[in-house]
Amino acid sequence: MTPNEKTIATFETRMRQMILRFQELKKENNDLYAQIEEDEKQMETLRQQLDQKQKDYEALKMARMISITDGDLQSAKDRLAKLIREVNKCIGILSDENE
């Protein structure tokens, strides 16, 4: 084998190695792009879930505020009814004293 043939054989071997390495890297690159796309889809799903959970939380807060307000309203009505009964008793007592 002449030096030129040896050089050409070495060159061919290295070219084949480079082509194989290129193909490996191309496959790895495609796999990574597929992974990125899958991750982006998952992130979008998680964003939508987060948005829904935030809306649910806001609705729950509002419902809680309304229920507390309703409870306060009922207790206020009860206190007012008690005060009216006491005033009526006082009026009754005063009416009895005046007779």
UniProtKB/TrEMBL annotation:
Keywords: Coiled coil. The keyword Coiled coil applies. This is DUF904 domain-containing protein. Residues 8-63 form a coiled coil.
